[in-house]
Amino acid sequence: MKTSDADILFVPGLGGSGPDHWQTRWAARLSTARLIEQNDWAAPTRDEWVAAVVAAVEACARPVVLVGHSLGSAAIAHAAPFFTAGKARGAMLVAPPDAATAQRVPGLGAIARDFALETVSKLPFTSVLVASRNDPLSSYEASEELARGLGAKLLDAGEAGHINADSGHGPWPEGLMSFAGFLKGL
User: Fold this and answer.
1) Which of 22, 50, 90, 183 has CB 3.0 to 4.6 Å from 172, enough for a Cys bridge?
2) Buried b / exposed e across 78-101, counting CB within 10 Å, b at 16+?
3) In whole angstroms, what is the distance from residue 185 CA to residue 91 CA?
4) What is the mean pLDDT of residues 129-133?
5) pLDDT per residue as tens digits for the range 10-39
6) Structural domain of 105
7) How far apart are CA 182 and CA 176, in angstroms?
8) Which residues of 48-62 are buried (b: 16+ CB within 10 A; e: fewer)?
9) CATH number of the domain bearing residue 139
10) pTM over 0.70, yes/no
């Protein structure tokens, strides 16, 4: 699949994706891409974020490819059962949080519990999960287990932190190359 064949929806995490974040940069470069907006980036609730993801997917005219980061990845996994069958063709989930690890970060306990992925089923479309070995919001072992549960291919990003602008992944060209390869396989 080529980018021109799909609507590419980026789902940012907590706080949104600022101007230096790879999601914002990629969305600006890809003509069929856009960021999904949420009502509240600072105090998210799973039901509201899921509803926004579902509405964005259902509004698309072409097949959809989703790209989530952190809590946005969790929102995609929770939203997937509500998509019209066949509407979403794939998802790249980057650094999804693991509730047990994220709860140890001050201020994230309730959010981590609300978006917890322990009960999520296999995704009904092709997916890849990109995980870091030193992500402060998820252990690599939890990411491996989540990838198995979602039926996603696991990509090891090495020691990449939370794979965001703060961890030095502003443009993240390696990620864009992985995304291009993922699209090609759809």
Assistant:
1) 22
2) bbbeebeeebbbbbbbbbbbbbeb
3) 12
4) 98
5) 999 999 999 999 999 999 999 999 999 999
6) 3-184
7) 10
8) ebbbbbbebbeebee
9) 3.40.50.1820
10) yes
Domains identified in the chain, total number: 1
Residue the block writes with tokens 């021109």: 4
- The secondary structure of the chain, three-state, reads CCHHHCEEEEECCCCCCCCCCHHHHHHHHCCCEEECCCCCCCCCCHHHHHHHHHHHHHCCCCCEEEEEECHHHHHHHHHHHHCCCCCEEEEEEECCCCHHHHCCCCCCHHHHHHCCCCCCCCCCCEEEEEECCCCCCCCHHHHHHHHHHHCCEEEECCCCCCCCHHHCCCCCHHHHHHHHHHHHCC
Q: Is the dihedral of CA 186, 6, 21, 101 positive or negative?
A: negative
Select from 41, 46, 40 the least CA-distant residue to 112.
46
Dihedral sign, CA of 186, 11, 170, 160? negative
Interior CA angle at 177 toward 50 and 163, to 5°?
A: 55
Q: Which residue has the tokens 């997937």?
A: 80
Q: Looking up tokens 């794979």, which residue turns up? A: 163
